[in-house]
Amino acid sequence: MTRDTRFWTFLVIFQVFFGLTVFAFTREYYLQDAEVVSGHPPTGAAAATSWSRGITPTDISRLSSPGIVEPTPSDPAEIYRRAEEFFSNRQYAQAAQLYEQLLAYSPNDAEIYNNLGLTLFYIGRTDEALRKLNDGVAVDAEHQRIWLTLGFVNSQLGNTEQARLALTKATQVGGSASIRESAEKMLAELP
Q1: What is the C-alpha to C-alpha distance for residues 177 and 62, in angstroms, rounded to an integer?
Q2: Which member of 54, 70, 110, 111 lies 3.0 to 4.6 Å from 140 by CB, making a disulfide possible if both were Cys?
């Protein structure tokens, strides 16, 4: 091969490589143009980058706000399952919304009042948490777990005497030994 042949071969290979490199870096641009022409949304990496373009931190916080919950079914068992799932994932605002919906189905269920009260406490709605827990006690004064939760919330809020009364009641009602032991332990830790 002569020098001219090697030069032209190198130039052709370089041009092909350069063209593919440029296309690889500008592929997103071409895929977005294809979306406009076809009227179909992009897929893959182009979809991810075109979707996120222009999204601000304010938009993200608004979209992830606790007020947005996927539609709930009308089956109380499914609502309860979802509420428990949100609670266990520490998505307390979503769990609280679902527990409130459950009260419409079962207004005399102290366990729902218990779960709602504890959830409201975790999201900082302490006055409302105490109201719901006291409402639950009014519904079923023999429900051991709600007394334990009421004692816990009061102790966390510095309401020592109310905590002592509720925890003492948790040791006296119900048949759960583990709840009784938890109440006794919390009582011992009160000032």
Answers
A1: 44
A2: 110
Q: What are phi and psi of 176, to 5 degrees?
A: -85, 115
**Chain mean position to CA 35:** 33
Q: Model confidence over 18-28: pLDDT tens digits?
A: 777 776 666 66
**Hey, where are the domains in the chain?**
3-53, 76-189
Q: Measured between alpha carbons, how far is 39 from 135 in angstroms, rounded to an integer?
A: 55
**What length is written for the chain?**
191
Q: Which structure tokens are listed for 169?
A: 């009641």
Considering 32-41, 55-64, 170-179, the range whose residues carry the highest mean pLDDT is: 170-179
- Cα–chain-centroid distance for residue 125? 17
Measure the CA–CA gap between 105 and 154, rounded to whole angstroms. Answer: 28
The reported pTM is 0.63
Find where tokens 């827990």 sit. Answer: 133
Closest CA to 29 of 14, 16, 42: 42
User: 106 phi and psi, to 5 degrees?
Assistant: -135, 75
Note the pLDDT of residue 4.
Answer: 83
CA torsion through residues 105, 110, 115, 119, sign: positive
Q: Which helix (H) or strand (E) holds 125?
A: none
Q: Per the CATH hierarchy, to which homologous superfamily does domain 76-189 belong?
A: Tetratricopeptide repeat domain (1.25.40.10)
